[in-house]
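Q: What does the predicted 3D structure of Heterokaryon incompatibility domain-containing protein look like?
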Amino acid sequence: MPRSNIEIGLQRGARASLLLCAASSLTTRLLGPSWKTLAATTVATLSVGFALSRPQCRTVDSIAAAHALFVFLVTSVVLSRWDALTTLFAIFTATHVLLSIGEYFQGNQVLSRWNQGLFRYIGGFITFFGTKLKSAKQVRQWWLRTPAVILAGVPFFMAISALATWNMMQELPYADWPWFRGVVREQRLRARSWTSWRYRAPAYVHSPITKGFQGRIRLLKLRPRWPLGEIRCELVEADMGTTSCPDYEAISYHWGPGKPTEPIYIDGKVFHVSPTVLAALYQLSSYHQTRHLWIDSICINQRDTDEKGSQITLMRDIYRHARGVTVWLDGIPEPWEARKMLAGLWHEIKFGTTQSVTAMLRMYSEQWRDSGWDQLCAVFCHPWFFRIWVIQEVSSAVDPEAVTILTSTTTLNWSNMVFVADSLNSLPLNIAMQTTVVAPEALKLPLGLLHAVFMGYLGTADPQSASRRLPALLGMVESYGATEPLDFVYALLGLLDPEDPVHGWLKPDYSKSVEDVFATVARGLIMTLDQGKSCNEVLSYAGIGYTNKLGAGLPSWAPDLTSQGTRAGTWTYQQHFNRPSHACQFNASGGSALDVFFPSPKVMRMRGIRFDRIAHVGPMLKYIEHYGPEVDEVTSTADMLINHFRCRILVLSKAQRPYPTGQNLQDVFWRSCVGDTQFVRPAPDSLGTACRVWEVMMMRYLSTEAAQGNRIAVEALEKLQDVMQGLHGDEEETGVGVVLQLLELITSNMAVTKDELMRTAMEWNGARMMCCAGRVLCVTEDGWVTFCPPETLVGDVVCVFHGVGTPFLLRQSSDTDSVTMELVGEAYVHGAMDGEGACRSEPEVFTIV
């Protein structure tokens, strides 16, 4: 067990014993000297103990062993899973019990009259420090006297150690009371200063970095400390990359919402850090040697925006020149179990078969969840995997083997984590992953695995590859988060090639507004990089058809990068029609040249044609992640399936006949759902069959739930039956007969296994992400089938811009003159993605604000 956990547990337990004294004193005063006193004290003790206990800090056994072997032997059997607070309350109560038993055996003569009065009427601090120990020594039975003395002495020692060091950690019960934390922090600082060489230590203030060498940085020199001692260090300047620069470790961690409230000493002065940083420093500090670290919250003056901007440009080199990158993951429950699970999966994937890995996943996720599965899920769902800055920090390491994942009790191998995550994200194991069981707090597991793979890939990718261009990176990091909105841009600059032209017109500057920076990024990418292609990529992230957190201050043609994570949560932006990862590219403008210019910083003018106008808007098709028993899968499946058939009916009833592509409307529907592509165009006919299998599997699932008495499933089937009435009429075209035939095949043909059907259904489920997931199906006035942003309205104009690969929707601006329009978002128009509609009307210039 790490020293920091033991020390923190000792201090927390000691403070808990003091709080117990107050509770015991109050109870004794209220109830008086009777047999009820012991029972009431016990109840109050255990009640408060349970209320204040924090199960994520399981340090009971080690803390007890550090104080007394006897207490360790008792708690390892009786209280092995209790929190340190609860254990100390139980120890104090046991002291009461032993003294009461001794009093009974001695005929109430074990205590002097004075001590009896203290024990029965006060029962508080005086009783705790004096009477308990004196009374315990007066017990005549040796088998009662020995444990009584030990139990009375242990809390006394812990109280003294707490008063001497008085460190407060984030797990304390009053952590969520800011006003109380402030008072306690002030008194704690006074107590610390009183025990040190001066009464009160002044606050540390950063000195400006000496100008001269371009790569000059600060390093944190972490000094050796005594057990239970303070964190003491100093900040030294160093010229990065030179021989005079000491070897240092770069720390990567999750900042979190916590403010810098915990004090450390830098050059003898107080400097406040977050609880996460304090825990990391305790873990990294040594009793006998000095250690050099680079940690951004300390080594960069966060109050100086100019320094932040200049130091951010050096962060790539800072992590590249570091001896190693240490990733600090705090709050992981039982990380040693996660390590065993990771090693087991690595070995099974490396040397086993797909069937053996699938069996292992199902066994651990369903039967032995607490034997490593839940803990490994907690690792990949840690907030660190969702922080945008860590991408640069990990991928900049000179060697992936130099990256170490550090938890409270063990370390994890980063390369092994990336290998396991990549395997679980790839076929066929990703199908098995979609049927595994995870805890409610681990529903982000698929995204955490994907982020681990992405960061591992960037660490080995060529800096000049397309994946390292800013438009591509903006698409890849849409599900990450950041404390500062500007970090969604500035955190990516270190991932670009040093010769990338973006560095010429974009510099980190935290004094600028978020709206101005986002608009600058959009303008710069549209005008300087491959023009048409970059323009398409930038505009695909923009539009008022999606949630915009920044409001009217941001032009509709500029992406709101702070909303990307929200959109990704509904899989709206997981696939863009023209993103570089697609093997096939659309060309709706028919090869015409891009014509765009900016008359003012927030106004864009583009040439294009009006293709059509939206006449009918259907429901949004969602991508449902089948994870976790706590998720109401019946409701989500029913909603998904009902909206699926409503969209099918909308196509059959409103789309033009015959359709311009010559396909029947059933084919038009399923091909539109996948953008008529599954990495090749047109999409293979087998996807149409997969769509039907998916429908039947979903209906069978609801039927099974309804047969088991699930009321939601019964109501869903009734509603689904009413919806499907719209499909009746043309049996051949609607394909109801095909559905019935597939249903008969599934129930009668044993040659078709459940796994094969599930694999086929999941093939369709994954292909839906190409186009329809998170978008609404619409039909235009001329009967064209389209998929549009979720907030599309009837009357929105479908436009094809010159030099841009996909159509876009525009909406007449409501708060300005009639000339200007607003960008709604990217659209897919089936049958018009290869220039078929590029000449439907005369070209015009659109003014977009």
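A (community wiki): The structure tokens above were generated from the sequence. The chain has a mean pLDDT of 74. The CA atoms of residues 671 and 683 lie 7 Å apart.
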